[in-house]
Amino acid sequence: MRASLAAACFVLFAASAHAACNVSVGPLSFGPYDPLSPAGATTSGVISVSCNQTPPPVVTIQIGPSAVSGGFFPRRMQRAGGSETLDYNLYVDAGLGAVWGDGTAGTATQSSRVTQNKAWNVTIYGSMPGLQDVPPGDYTDSIGITINF
After folding, report:
1. What are residue 99's DSSP bridge partners?
2. Residues near 87 by Cβ (< 8 Å), separated by ≥ 6?
3. What CA–CA distance (Å, rounded) separates 141 from 9?
4. What's the rounded Cα separation, in Å, for the pair 17 and 1?
5. Which of 15, 118, 113 is nearest to 55 (CA)?
6. C-alpha angle with apex 128: 126 to 129, nearest 5 degrees?
7. Mean pLDDT of 33-37
8. What are 107's strand-pairing partners?
9. Regarding beta strands 138-148 and 75-79, do their DSSP bridges make them parallel or antiparallel, or are they unpaired?
10. 104: which residues sit within 8 A by CB, 6+ positions away?
11. Nearest to 130 by CA among 84, 87, 97
């Protein structure tokens, strides 16, 4: 079975800004998952933001709730053509200490000043608990990523 996420990006521009920011996010894949393993699965990916504004804007990245579960604790993927789900979450740190969200309900965001013509690359860390006994298949979820500056 394979588990992966698709991300849609939303860029919110400040009303007085005349800048443009480019955002790129690739799919985040947990790869093959063994539902009988207590080890679970981890993954990571990168969000890249570059802006053309001087002085550099402060950019905040928010990651929305799971489209399947509608929440952050946990986010869930759903099996294609089925109703079975796999729990997972996304984090701002490799130690998996803070759930990446929109800044509400105890979730964290990431902010940085983005220098003109220099990309800000931010790592997303994903974790899926082990021992989720679900049938084989492709499990997916969609999340929204919002960029504020």
Report:
1. 91
2. 74, 75, 76, 128, 129, 132
3. 14
4. 45
5. 113
6. 140
7. 88
8. none
9. antiparallel
10. none
11. 87
Average pLDDT over all residues of the chain: 85
| Cα of 109 vs its chain's centroid, Å | 11
Q: Which two tokens stand for residue 99?
A: 């759930």
pLDDT tens track for 96-116: 999 999 999 999 999 999 988
Rounded to two decimals, the pTM is: 0.85
Buried b (16+ CB within 10 A) or exposed e, 31-43: eebeeeeeebbeb
Beta strands in 13-137 (DSSP E): 21-25, 28-32, 41-51, 58-63, 75-79, 85-91, 110-113, 120-128
